Amino acid sequence: RPLRVLGCEDNLIARKLLAALLKQKGYEFHAAVDGQQGVDAFELHRPDVTVMDIGMPVLDGIQASSQIRRIEAERGWPRHRIVRPLSRSSSSSLSCPLLTIPSCSFARRSP
C-alpha cells in the first residue's frame, strides 16, 4: 500500500502544494485545515506520517500532536512520525513545546 500522509495546514496554498507534491510521489494524502480536523483525520485514516503546522485554529499543532499521542497510547497503536516543517525564518535554536512530544521531528522548508 502507498505511504499514507496526513497534512495539517491551515494555509490553503501550502496545503495544496503539499498535496500535489506527495500525490505526485504516489503517496496517499489526506488534509486537515485545523488541529481538531487533524486529530479526527488521524483516527479515521491512521497515517504513517503527519505533517503538522503549529499555528492553526481550533487546536494548534502542539495540542493536536499531544492528542494524537494520547490516542496512540490509549489504543495501543504504534507511534507514527509527526513532522513539523520549519519556515526559513525559524530559529536554529528552537525552544518549542513540540520538542517535548516524543517521536516528533522537524524538517526545514526550502527557501
Number of helical elements: 3
State the separation between the terminal residues, measured CA to CA: 32 Å
Beta content comes to 15-25%
Shape: globular
- E-strand count: 5
Biggest beta sheet attributes:
5 strands, parallel
| Portion in helices | 25-40%
Round the mean pLDDT to the nearest integer and report it: 82
Topology pattern, helix = H, strand = E: EHEHEHEE
Return Rg in Å.
13 Å
Q: Uncertain regions: pLDDT < 50 for 5+ in a row?
A: 88-111
Side-by-side strand order of the widest sheet: 2-1-3-4-5
Pairing-aware structural class of the strands and helices?
alpha/beta
Features of the shown structure:
single chain, 111 residues, alpha/beta, five-stranded parallel beta sheet, 3 helices, 35% helix, disordered C terminus
Structural description of this entry:
By secondary structure, the protein is an alpha/beta fold. The protein has three helices and five strands. A five-stranded parallel β-sheet has the order 2-1-3-4-5, sandwiched between helices. The longest helix has 15 residues. The radius of gyration is 13 Å and the shape is globular.
SSE layout and pairings?
Elements: E1 4-8, H1 12-24, E2 28-32, H2 35-45, E3 49-52, H3 61-75, E4 81-86, E5 104-108
Parallel strand pairs: 1-2, 1-3, 3-4, 4-5
Task: Give a brief description.
The protein has 111 residues and is an alpha/beta fold. The chain has three helices and five strands, in the order βαβαβαββ.
